[in-house]
Amino acid sequence: xxxxxxxxxxxxxxxxxxxxxxxxxxxxxxxxxxxxxxxxxxxxxxxxxxxxxxxxxxxxxxxxxxxxxxxxxxxxxxxxxxxxxxxxxxxxxxxxxxxxxxxxxxxxxxxxxxxxxxxxxxxxxxxxxxxxxxxxxxxxxxxxxxxxxxxxxxxxxxxxxxxxxxxxxxxxxxxxxxxxxxxxxxxxxxxxxxxxxxxxxxxxxxxxxx
Length: 210
Fold this sequence. Notes:
Number of strands: 6
GO biological process, one term: regulation of DNA-templated transcription
CATH architecture of the largest domain: 3-Layer(aba) Sandwich
Distance between the termini: 34 Å
Keywords: DNA-binding, Phosphoprotein, Transcription, Transcription regulation
Domain Response regulatory: 3-119
Largest sheet: 6 strands, parallel
GO molecular function, one term: DNA binding
Structural class: alpha/beta
Oligomer: single chain
Shape: globular
InterPro entries: CheY-like_superfamily, NreC/VraR/RcsB-like_REC, Sig_transdc_resp-reg_C-effctor, Sig_transdc_resp-reg_receiver, Tscrpt_reg_LuxR_C, WalR-like
């Protein structure tokens, strides 16, 4: 069962999101919080597979909570959820290391698909968000050559990560075992001194690999 912490300051919205998520029989909301501070307190006492965070909340917002979660509980995935279609929020979330960014107007299928993508190692960006974020990434950073230590096989894997593919999808496409792909991704991040897959995806975009 996939354990989810749902953090949203409006109770009615939170209950609606919970109902949407739990239409999937493999997902259960095992924790609810109304702000980032409460979310961190729940993380202290419980283990969650994924933490869904609203951006704007009282006491502690979702971005500040995500920074702490990525540092203290890196095994938990983070999905940012907001009504604000603003690339600056998404850019900040990606820099923090969030695994996905969705708008609240997404339907239940899109939300569940995004949660599964985050859990499988993919980078989930709603199309409207990606359309704003990717051009900004390209605009802000000059394209430079890929590190010389990267092998042709690793370059292909970087490209697929940049496209938002999960480890399983990469394994299927390249006819490799899941464990082999995980090892490749880990080695690539070590070579490039990157913290997580989100940073690797951004690296792929910045270096024109995608």
